[in-house]
Specification:
heterodimer; A: mainly alpha; rod-shaped; B: mainly alpha; 9 helices
Chain lengths: 186, 192
C-alpha cells in the first residue's frame, strides 16, 4: 500500500504517468480517497480551497447523475430495438406509426412550403407584366412598337436590334394591309 | 512533464468510453471549482449543487475537448459561465469584473458574501485547514522544504533535487512521506 501511495504521490505531481498505475487507481477506492486528500493538501497550502470546504465527495453524485442522464438518452433506442427484434403486438405498432407520422408531417411541411413558393412566383409574374389591353384597334394603341421598355443604359445592342426588327415587320404588315384596303375599295 | 499530462490521460480515457476516469477529475478539481464559485454565488448552500452542475457540463462537453488548452483552463471557463448562468437565473448581476484564470485560485472572495454561510461547516473547514498547515509546520525540515517547493513553487522533482542537492528518488520519497504524515492527521477529519 505504501508503495502504491508513493507512486500515487508521483502521479499527482505528473512525475510518473503510467497506464497500469492509472488502472490501479481507478479500481481502488482507497487509492482514490488518498488521491483526493493529497490534492486537498495542495489546495489548502496554495490557498485554493474554498473557505467552506465541500462536506462530501461529490464525485459519486456526479457519476450517478451522469448514469441517469445516459439511461434517459438510451430509452428511445432501446424501445426501437425491441420493436425490431422481438416485439410484442402492442409495441410493434409504435415504431412504424411513428415513422409514418414523421414522414407525413415532413411531407406536409414540404407541400406547404412549395405552395407558398408557387403563389409567390405566380403573383410576381402577374404584377411584372405590362398592363396592355389589346382590343384590336391599332390606332388606339399607345404602347410604342417593340414594347414599352424603360430607358436604360443597361439595354444591350441585341435587344435594340430585336426591337428594330419587330418594328419593321409591323410596319410592313401595316403597309400591306393598307394596300389591300386600297385595292378592295370601289 | 507538464501539469496537464495526467488530466489529458484521463480525458482521453473518458473520450474512449472509460467513464470511471471522470471520477478522478472530479476529485482532483472539486474544491478548486467550489473556490471559484464562491466569488459568484452568495449562498454557500448552493455551492455543492452548482459544482455538480459544472462537472455535468464538463462531462457533456468532453467529447469536443481537443486539448488545445490546459484542461483546467477549459474547466475554469465552464465554471465561470455556469456561475453567471446561475446568477442570471437568480436575477442577480454577475461581478462587474472578472478575474484571470491564473489569479482565480488565490482569490479570496469578499467577506460581504459570507453572511449566509453555515458557521459549523466553516468551523470544520477551518479545523481541516489548521490541521494541514500545523502538521506542515511540524514536519522535519527536509520534508517541509520538499513539499513546499513542490506545492507552492510548482517545481519539478528535478528542480527540487538540484536545489536540495539530492537524487530525484529522494525528492519523490520526501514529498510522499510529507503527504503521508499530513494525511494521517487529515483522514480522521474527513468523512471520506
Amino acid at each position: 500500500m505504501k508503495d502504491i501511495n508513493e507512486k500515487l504521490s508521483a502521479i499527482i505531481d505528473d512525475e510518473l504517468i503510467n497506464d497500469e498505475l492509472i488502472d490501479d487507481l481507478l479500481n481502488d477506492e482507497e487509492c482514490q480517497a488518498s488521491f483526493y486528500r493529497y490534492h486537498l493538501i495542495g489546495d489548502v497550502m496554495r490557498d485554493e480551497a474554498p473557505h467552506q470546504l465541500l462536506e462530501i465527495d461529490i464525485s459519486q453524485q456526479v457519476m450517478s447523475r451522469i448514469e441517469e442522464q445516459s439511461v434517459d438518452t438510451l430509452i428511445e433506442p432501446v424501445i426501437a430495438t425491441d420493436n425490431v427484434v422481438d416485439m410484442p403486438a402492442t409495441k410493434a405498432k409504435i415504431y412504424p406509426e411513428n415513422n409514418v407520422i414523421s414522414f407525413a408531417k415532413r411531407f406536409g411541411q414540404y407541400a406547404i412550403a412549395a405552395s407558398v413558393a408557387g403563389v409567390v412566383v405566380v403573383s410576381s409574374l402577374m404584377t411584372s407584366q405590362p398592363a396592355i389591353e389589346n382590343n384590336g384597334l391599332e390606332v388606339l394603341k399607345t404602347v410604342p412598337f417593340g414594347g414599352a421598355t424603360p430607358v436604360s443604359l443597361q439595354a444591350t445592342q441585341q435587344q435594340s436590334q430585336q426591337a428594330v426588327k419587330d418594328y419593321n415587320e409591323r410596319l410592313d404588315a401595316l403597309l400591306k394591309d393598307h394596300q389591300l384596303q386600297l385595292q378592295t375599295q370601289p | 512533464m507538464s501539469e496537464r499530462d495526467l488530466d489529458l490521460q484521463l480525458v482521453r480515457r473518458i473520450q474512449d468510453g472509460e467513464q470511471q476516469a471522470f471520477t478522478l477529475l472530479v476529485r482532483k478539481y472539486q474544491n478548486r471549482v467550489a473556490n471559484i464559485l464562491t466569488r459568484y454565488v452568495r449562498n454557500s448552500g448552493d455551492i455543492a449543487d452548482i459544482t455538480q452542475e459544472v462537472f455535468l457540463k464538463v462531462h457533456r462537453s468532453l467529447p469536443s475537448f481537443r486539448g488545445d488548452s490546459a484542461f483546467y483552463t477549459w474547466l475554469y471557463r465552464i465554471t465561470v459561465n455556469t456561475a453567471k448562468n446561475y446568477l442570471t437565473s437568480q436575477s442577480r448581476r454577475p461581478p462587474a469584473s472578472d478575474i484571470d484564470a491564473a489569479d482565480a485560485d488565490s482569490y479570496d472572495g469578499s467577506d460581504a458574501l459570507r453572511e449566509v454561510d453555515d458557521p459549523e461547516a466553516i468551523l470544520r473547514s477551518q479545523e481541516i485547514k489548521k490541521v494541514i498547515l500545523t502538521t506542515i509546520e511540524l514536519l522535519p525540515v527536509e520534508l517541509r522544504s520538499a513539499i513546499t517547493l513542490r506545492e507552492l513553487e510548482g517545481m519539478s522533482y528535478e528542480e527540487i533535487s538540484n536545489i536540495e542537492d539530492c537524487p530525484i528518488g529522494t525528492v519523490r520519497s520526501r514529498i510522499f512521506r510529507a503527504r503521508e504524515i499530513i494525511d494521517k492527521q487529515l483522514k480522521p477529519l474527513l468523512e471520506y
